[in-house]
Amino acid sequence: MTDLDILYEDDEIIVCHKPAGIATQTKRLGKPDMESLLKNYRARKQEPPYIGIIHRLDQPVEGVMVFAKNQRAAAELSKQVKERTIGKHYYAVVKKTEACSLKKQGVLKDYILSDERGNISRIVKKDTPKAKVAKLEYRIIGQAQELLCADILLHTGRHHQIRLQFSNAGAPILGDTKYGNEKNIHLALCAYRLEFLHPGTKASMDFCVPPKGSLFAGFLDNIGNMA
């Protein structure tokens, strides 16, 4: 059984640090995911085992997630996601290639066409049918030879967005087997901070976690200074 790293809980929400390797939600029988783990956790406390999925992190990505404990809270938090008022911040370690176009800081804006059934996305022209805009801001906060550590503010939440956009910019995320052609190492991507309004009290909520992935080890001082 996977232990839950619960950062905060009340009658309306549960905030967790999702570990890398655990899906947010999966249809694979026998495979643990955050939804089933939290439902079982609530059932053990003799609570209604409802868990509302508000947003998702890719299976190899670690980081902060918020889940709703009732439908009203789920609707309110989902509204914030739709209106893009939830703050989603990430750290990524990327590998510069000769085609790298990253600056010290900047904005990446592309159009993405997703095939979630095939679990792949690609960047396309603006007028491509079903393409959606993808936008993020980044700052480079550390460098070690060809590796860069980026602090990212996500404006849209497209399928594989960060991984795809950085790969397209000539700086694939370290350990990305899908968009970076690397094998047998973890993905250096962490959703380190989440900001939102509490669905009941409307209080500002702000949660941060340090990355646990070993690929961040050389940049922890830079990350600590940014927190």
Structure description:
This protein is 17% helix and 35% strand. By secondary structure, the chain is an alpha+beta fold. The chain is globular. The mean pLDDT is 93.
Provide a compact summary of the structure:
The protein is an alpha+beta fold and 227 residues long.
Keywords:
227 residues; alpha+beta; Pseudouridine synthase; eleven-stranded mixed β-sheet; 11 strands; 35% strand
Number of helices: 4
Task: Outline the low-pLDDT stretches.
Answer: none
Q: From the alpha carbons, calculate the radius of gyration and give it in angstroms.
A: 18 Å
Q: What's the main sheet like? A: 11 strands, mixed
Q: Let me know the CATH homologous superfamily.
A: Pseudouridine synthase
What structural class do the secondary elements suggest? Answer: alpha+beta
Overall structural domain count = 1
From the spread of the alpha carbons, the general shape counts as: globular
At the fold tier of CATH, the topology name is: Pseudouridine synthase
Order of helices and strands: EEHEEHEEEEEHEEH
Count of strand segments: 11
The residue-averaged pLDDT reads: 93
- The CATH class assignment is Alpha Beta
How does the SSE layout of this entry go?
Layout: E1 6-9, E2 13-18, H1 34-44, E3 52-53, E4 62-68, H2 71-82, E5 87-95, E6 105-115, E7 120-124, E8 132-144, E9 147-154, H3 161-168, E10 189-197, E11 204-208, H4 220-226
Parallel strand pairs: 4-10
Antiparallel strand pairs: 1-2, 2-4, 3-4, 5-9, 5-10, 6-7, 6-8, 8-9, 10-11
